[in-house]
């Protein structure tokens, strides 16, 4: 039986505090940030495409993100 951290990977955009990424990593959860993957300034669509291709759940506090859906 695998645990949750083996199945779900996350991507945090630049609107999410780095402390959240650090906390997830302390719990052995796979997480990337927009800064780490050189997507600062990229469009929401580009960041979403990255998350999808990496099979990651995108986490954002971006108020206009809902317009994409």
Low-confidence stretches: none
Q: Tell how many strands the DSSP assignment holds.
A: 3
| Radius of gyration from the alpha-carbon trace, in angstroms | 12 Å
**Strand ordering within the main sheet:** 2-1-3
Description:
It is a single chain. It contains three helices and three strands; from the N terminus they run αβαβαβ. The chain is of the alpha/beta class and 69 residues long. The protein has one domain (4-68). A three-stranded parallel beta sheet has the order 2-1-3, sandwiched between helices. The longest helix is centred in the C-terminal third of the chain and has 10 residues, at 44-53. It is globular. The N and C termini lie far apart (34 Å).
Summarize the structure.
With 69 residues, this protein is an alpha/beta fold. It has helices spanning 4-7, 18-26, 44-53; strands spanning 9-12, 31-33, 56-59.
Please specify the SSE layout and strand pairing.
Elements: H1 4-7, E1 9-12, H2 18-26, E2 31-33, H3 44-53, E3 56-59
Parallel strand pairs: 1-2, 1-3
Short descriptors:
69 residues, globular, alpha/beta, 3-stranded parallel β-sheet
């Amino acid at each position: 039986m695998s645990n949750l951290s083996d199945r779900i990977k996350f991507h945090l955009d630049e609107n999410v505090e780095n402390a959240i990424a650090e906390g997830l990593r302390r719990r052995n959860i796979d997480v990337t940030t927009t800064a780490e993957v050189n997507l600062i300034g990229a469009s929401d669509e580009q960041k979403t495409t990255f998350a999808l291709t990496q099979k990651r759940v995108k986490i954002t506090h971006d108020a206009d993100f809902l317009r994409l859906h």
